[in-house]
């Protein structure tokens, strides 16, 4: 039905299969444009070397700059589980390194053999970055 309220009602004969196909195509396109995975994960270990730590922090900053939430995971293996405080120190170092661009969304949690910390971008930092990028393009 094109105009069911008019006198007489106006209808169009159409191929139902084609109509279904068009609707499915539009729906698929709309799903493609949405941001599906807004949480990214960065894995560390409690015995991480300084250079490796710096690389992971840089990657974390890059992801936060793009607007993603970042989940920092400290993986414990074997006897490392006896020294969870070392993992918490690594998390504190990460938090200190990205404090101007991100904030801790939740406190660190130990789940099984992994210690988790969720970071989210700071709103004012994201707005300032957007303003800088728009003024640079002009």
Give me a quick take on this structure.
By secondary structure, the protein is of the alpha+beta class. Helices cover about 45% and strands about 20% of the residues. The chain has a domain at about 40-130: Translation initiation factor 3 (IF-3), C-terminal domain (Translation Initiation Factor IF3, 2-Layer Sandwich), CATH 3.30.110.
What does this structure look like?
The protein is α+β, with helices and mostly antiparallel strands. The protein has a domain of 92 residues: Translation initiation factor 3 (IF-3), C-terminal domain (Translation Initiation Factor IF3), CATH 3.30.110.10. 46% of the residues lie in helices and 20% in strands. It contains 4 helices and 5 strands. Strands 1, 2, 3, 4 and 5 form a 5-stranded mixed beta sheet that branches. β1, α2 and β2 form a beta-alpha-beta unit. The chain is elongated.
List the helices and strands and how they pair.
Layout: H1 16-33, E1 39-44, H2 50-65, E2 69-75, H3 84-97, E3 102-104, E4 109-111, E5 114-121, H4 123-137
Parallel strand pairs: 1-2
Antiparallel strand pairs: 2-5, 3-5, 4-5
Residue-averaged pLDDT? 84
Number of strands: 5
Within the CATH hierarchy, at the fold level, what is the topology of the domain at 39-130? Translation Initiation Factor IF3
- Terminal-residue CA separation: 49 Å
Share of helix, binned: 40-55%
SSE series: HEHEHEEEH
Beta-strand fraction estimate: 15-25%
Task: Give the radius of gyration.
Answer: 25 Å
Largest sheet: 5 strands, mixed
| CATH hierarchy: architecture of the domain at 39-130 | 2-Layer Sandwich
Can you tell me the overall shape? Answer: elongated
User: Which structural class matches the secondary elements?
Assistant: alpha+beta
Q: Output the CATH homologous superfamily of the domain at 39-130.
A: Translation initiation factor 3 (IF-3), C-terminal domain
Q: Uncertain runs with pLDDT below 50, 5 residues or more?
A: none
């Amino acid at each position: 039905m094109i105009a069911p309220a008019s006198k007489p009602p106006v209808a169009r004969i159409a191929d139902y299969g084609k109509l279904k196909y068009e609707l499915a195509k539009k729906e698929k396109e709309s799903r493609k444009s949405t941001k599906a995975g807004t949480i990214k994960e960065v894995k560390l270990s409690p015995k991480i070397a300084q250079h490796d730590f710096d690389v992971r922090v840089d990657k974390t900053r890059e992801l936060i700059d793009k607007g993603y939430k970042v989940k920092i995971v400290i993986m414990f293996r074997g006897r490392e589980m006896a020294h969870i405080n070392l993992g918490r120190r690594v998390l504190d170092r990460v938090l200190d390194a990205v404090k101007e661009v991100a904030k801790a969304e939740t406190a660190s949690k130990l789940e099984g053999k992994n210690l988790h910390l969720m970071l989210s971008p700071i709103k004012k930092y994201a707005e300032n970055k957007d303003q800088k990028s728009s003024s640079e393009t002009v």
